[in-house]
Batch of 4 targets.
Target 1
Amino acid sequence: MCLWQEPSRPLCNRPWHTQGFLDFNGEHSYTGKVRSQRLTDPGFNEKSGQQPVGLSMDWLLAFVKVVMRRNTRQIQVGSVAVGGTAPVSVQSMCNTDTRDVAATVAQIHDLEAAGCELVRCAVPDQAAAETLGAIRSGISIPLIADIHFDYQLALDSLKAGVDGLRLNPGNIGAEWKVAEVVKACSERNVPIRIGVNAGSLEKPLLEKYGHPTAEAMVESALGHIRILEGLDFCQIKVSLKASDVRRTVEAYRLLADQVDYPLHIGITEAGTTWSGTVKSAIGLGSLLLDGIGDTLRVSLTGDPVEEVRVGWEILKSLELRERGPVFISCPTCGRCQIDLIDIAEEVERRLHDLPLKLTIAVMGCVVNGPGEAREADLGIAGGQGQGLLFRNGETVRKVKQEDLADALVEEAWQMVEQRQKETS
Ligand code: SF4
């Protein structure tokens, strides 16, 4: 029995949960290839259509590996597909002055290196719009122009070659202005993100609801969507951001039940790197576990490169995407007899840009250390002033504590080289 589009046996009480992505042998696909495979209940009789009594163990074991995802339309932002079977993409926004092309391009290169797949720049004025062409030609990821109120800036950005617009059609004035922008987007196949923000909701909605509630945010989004649909434009993605987790999650859940446009998820103005990371992980993690979210942006008061790192860590934690190493390290306790915290931090800092997925365990003692280290690709289990090094589940050698970080880093790169040779 196919889990996909199977109304007779709903997987949960959300009717739009009809699409599943299967993780075969821990391999997560970056394309739609593996994701399109079907999960079959071995007990289902195709000919008679008879269901087995209860669920077979095989089916249940397969089921727990499925990550359910809301079924959305797919749009194309330049070279990056968003929605449908496309992987959840990671995006960020520059905090440079857009008119400073060199600084903006340099920041985008840093973001790209960290794994940013879509980038947005603020377009506050004509001069900023005019620089977008130069920025676009200096980078290799799709560029999105962030426009507020001024349709002419949207038209200029489109002429400059941007791959996407963030613009709320209800905020740019007369209908003919919206129509011109939509026409220019259609001609260039450029999608529009409707970005509802609790801090800038329309006055009538604030009067109706009293506050920028989740319902008010959804009503705002539906109003903007209707404007674009009225112009026959459906290359839309939508975001509904508030600065608190509960309201944001509630708003996305409400909208997800009403439209099938891909959703850009994020907690806006989430705070500094520390508090914003916690809020974003809870908010985006809750939504992604619900199958909601096609692209994400973590908003932090800090270096946007951190936004990208946090975004990836969220996706990796939920096993939705893979990128570089997965670190495991123990919190240490009274049994630990090596300087584990420094070693773990050094290893993470030196290996964060490893090009392959390797699981690396840095463990303090022999209680849980050997078990975790053996399960990982590489690991150490601390002893008195030294540690045992493990590789592929086997003990390799004892290493003095001052050499443990170097040993792990060297082993990790050797392992990467070996795997690259094997696959080349
Ligand atoms: S692995 Fe050992 S040192 Fe680390 S927390 Fe567990 S018991 Fe303590």
Note: The chain is about 40% helix and 20% strand.
Target 2
Amino acid sequence: MKTALALSILTALFATANASPGVVFTPPVTDPTNTTVWTSGQVETVTWDVSNPPANITNRIGRIQFRFDDITTPLVLADNFDILLGTIQVTAPLVITGSDYSLVLFGDSGNFSPEFTINGL
Ligand SMILES: *[C@@H]1O[C@H](CO)[C@@H](O)[C@H](O)[C@H]1NC(C)=O
Ligand SMILES: *[C@@H]1O[C@H](CO)[C@@H](O)[C@H](O)[C@H]1NC(C)=O
């Protein structure tokens, strides 16, 4: 009996904790596009659409990571910025020339950019 009571209290607490989840905000990346060409080592601009943010965002701290061939690499191009900024400048990584690079923008969750080209080494 005691166990059952404790369990139901736990369940109630858990339900309360989850009752008002923050709103997941996943702004689409608008630049780079699939026709973008970056140059290794150059400062380039990343933009994303913040025209429709919800009132509550669970995580406003943004981070951009580099992707290659559909794999998110540990390379962080920018972090600790406000997801509502909508744009940030990053330095294009030193990579070999290729067209299967992309980015992932993290806030509440990850949003991929289209694949784009980097003119590299
Ligand atoms: C690039 O994006 C445009 C607009 O979303 C789309 O129409 C086009 O098919 C894309 N091209 C490639 C090669 O994915
Ligand atoms: C936003 O947060 C406030 C305060 O925590 C809450 O009262 C409100 O219901 C939330 N709105 C949404 C859409 O989650």
Note: The beta strands are 29-31, 37-39, 43-48, 61-68, 71-82, 87-91, 98-106, 110-112, 116-119.
Target 3
Amino acid sequence: MKTGYSIRTWRMRLVCPEPIWLDRTEEYFQNVVEFYYHLLRQHEELWNSSLFDIQRSLELLSLAGRDGRQPTNPLPMGKVPVYLRRAAINKASATVKSTQELQSGFPEKLEAKVTFFKGMYSDLTDRSICLKLWNGEKWIWTDCNLKGRSFPQDGQLMSPTLVKEGRCYLLNIPVKQENSDARTAKERMAEGTNLCSVRFTNTDTFAVCCILDEQGKQLAVHTCRGGDAYRHRCKLLETRIQKSRPNTVGDNSPQPNRKYYMHLKNLSEHYAHQVSREILNFCKENQAGIIVLPNYDQNFTRMAMVKSGNFSPLHLSSKIRTNLQYKAWAEGILVLETRTDGLKDKCAICGGKVRRKGNEFLCENGHQGNRFLNDARNLGRKCQDSFFRGSRTK
Ligand SMILES: [Zn+2]
């Protein structure tokens, strides 16, 4: 079977016993980048060479040879760790090359974030990492803690990059995951696959999911609940923000109530992860190779989002979708979208016209049941039909 891979970035909070060393390491790296940037700008004859050739040439200019040859442009900071030096040279070369391509002027200053390549870090886990840091005089291996979501078990961790956000330090760590199935939707449909269609709602149910086999027969149904609890917990936080407002109006704090807003944000993220995980587990249990999400037109989406409120189960669906996209990919499941026009007016059992009665539907031929499930079934079938147009009888 065809396979592929994806790379996602994990953002981890970095807790360092000597935060000042992080600043010094960054500054040190910045100096090395600038040194090579200026050196390369003086050597126009190198600009069209490959990155590899530029690297070799710049090293010849700046480092002493084994045979005792003295460099014309020695590094002012003395001996620089090899991978840090190469990262700096790459950054400088990439900037010069892109300046040429865009035919823009050379920027005076370069913003260079430190990436810890091989030799600059070790013992990377979910909880800790050992970084080689510059304390202003020498390099010191420093044990730091990490806070954040754990890495996927089969993920391959790549070189972390240091990022400063406000007063916090973060490590961005790319995680590479093999994907067991890189077939296209068309190939999957042709070979036959179960499909999971999803209908998001603004009730206690975040999503109704329905598994259809390749003939369009319903095999299983699952509802992701917790919408009311989510709404309630958000409401409590919003009330707290309201109540504390009179007390914070006079504050000079740039972002009063930040704590509560962060809570709200975390709450949304937590639920979005949980629901997307639940949908995905349901897909795996039922061997679904494709997930179908409703694709509403933009006006409808905007209206529905405004009507449902900022912290409602339906509003969360956009976050759930995003999470599903990348989680599904890592599991080898494809996510498709299908237009929903006309789907809610049709009975999924007989195709007859339906009336809506609260959360139920009532068909002209007597069928009735949950209208969200009816929508989900219709959505799945419509998606299947779009692949087998004309070749399947109903
Ligand atoms: Zn019917």
Note: Residues 347, 349-350, 352, 363, 365, 367 surround zinc ion (CB under 6 Å).
Target 4
Amino acid sequence: MTAALGIKGHCAHCDITFELKPWQLNAIAIEEPFDCPYCQRILQLNCPVQLRHFKALDRWALVRPSMVALTCMVLIVALVAEWLGLISVIGQFNISLMVVLLHCLVLRYARHRQRMTLDLHVVSPVLPIEQLARIAGARLSQR
Ligand SMILES: [Zn+2]
């Protein structure tokens, strides 16, 4: 998940914002709690809106390669059209300028969307016994 780099996490307990490492991002992606590197509390992303936003980042990672392909294609088509005499040199120049400008704008927007700070909340660790009791309870109620 290289595109997700630059995402920060904010610990609700020690009030420190830190850059999330790839393994921490993976933990968030699978909704698994992990330790705060500063206060060692167990953190989890509880906000459903932020979680949805976070999971949509994969789609933003595709923006860059597809924009590069699109820009190259438009530049080549404009060049060929000028050679064939379909458009003037000025026209070709204008199209090229527009597409490069659009390229920069889209990438800037994608970068902006990828930069985010996740509010991480402290979760109380579930004791293994408690968890077992809950599973046993659920099984009993099924009968
Ligand atoms: Zn902390």
Note: The first helix runs from residue 22 to 29.
